[in-house]
């Protein structure tokens, strides 16, 4: 769980109030919540603390990896951070779109390029 703990001229500083791979009351991990909320600084802090990039969590009734959420929201900086932290570019089950497919659906060429450079496979 994350909480804004102070405000400075640079913006909100994020306090991590639990272990980076722990679950909160809705069964979501802090990294997944930070990615879903497009909180770039929180994502960066969690990844620096070695948060797992490939743990699937339940958000809105479905399980998905943080890289899938980042591609669905179109946040280029978060996608870049997750890929640098070795997120699985093929993260998806057979019934769900891959991160590359999501970026394609959004027409997000920058994210598509990052994913392809990171080894995403085109089917």
UniProtKB/TrEMBL annotation:
<dbReference type="InterPro" id="IPR036770">
    <property type="entry name" value="Ankyrin_rpt-contain_sf"/>
</dbReference>
<keyword id="KW-0040">ANK repeat</keyword>
<feature type="repeat" description="ANK">
    <location>
        <begin position="95"/>
        <end position="123"/>
    </location>
</feature>
<dbReference type="Pfam" id="PF12796">
    <property type="entry name" value="Ank_2"/>
</dbReference>
<dbReference type="InterPro" id="IPR002110">
    <property type="entry name" value="Ankyrin_rpt"/>
</dbReference>
<protein>
    <submittedName>
        <fullName>ANKEF1 protein</fullName>
    </submittedName>
</protein>
<keyword id="KW-0677">Repeat</keyword>
